[in-house]
Amino acid sequence: MMQVNIAEATTDFARLIRLLESRKEDAITVARDGKPIVKMTLVHEPPVSRRIGIARGQFAVHGDFDADNADIAEGLSGGRL
Predict the structure, then answer these.
(1) Helix, strand, coil percentages, rounded to 5, for the chain
(2) Distance between CA 4 and CA 15 in Å, rounded?
(3) Pairing between strand 28-32 and 35-40?
(4) Which of 19, 30, 36, 61 is the Cys-Cys partner for 25 at CB 3.0 to 4.6 Å?
(5) Gap between the Cα atoms of 4 and 12, Å rounded
(6) Distance between CA 76 and CA 80 in Å, rounded?
(7) pLDDT tens-digit series, residues 36-59
(8) For residue 40, what are the contacts with CB-CB under 8 A and spacing of at least 6?
(9) In the chain, at which residue ranges do the beta strands (DSSP E only) sit?
């Protein structure tokens, strides 16, 4: 992990971002007077396939869930679809 002071981070911000993107650094700490203040890391978003179905098993739908679809569509659109 690399540590830089605030002045260097301000001056070389784009270069620091490139270091993270290229995975040459896994985190960069920004310090004031040698004391760590902020840690910069890449944002790791879960792949789409891991988000789909994430609530599986968390709730149950009882009865005929789609029974009122026609009435709902009519109310939202001003008439039957």
Answers:
(1) 35, 20, 45
(2) 12
(3) antiparallel
(4) 19
(5) 10
(6) 9
(7) 999 999 998 877 776 777 788 888
(8) 16, 17, 20, 27, 28, 29, 30
(9) 2-5, 28-32, 35-40
Tell me the pLDDT tens digit for each residue of 7-35.
Answer: 999 999 999 999 999 999 999 999 999 99
Which residue, chain included where needed, has tokens 């789909």?
52
Contact 15, 2 (CB under 8 A): no
**Residue matched to tokens 């270069």:** 15
Q: Quickly tell me which residue has 């009435």 as its tokens.
A: 71
Whether the CB-CB separation of 65 and 41 falls below 8 Å is answered with no
Give the single-character DSSP code of 64: -
Task: Please name every residue paired with 38 in a beta bridge, in sequence order, or none if there are none.
Answer: 30
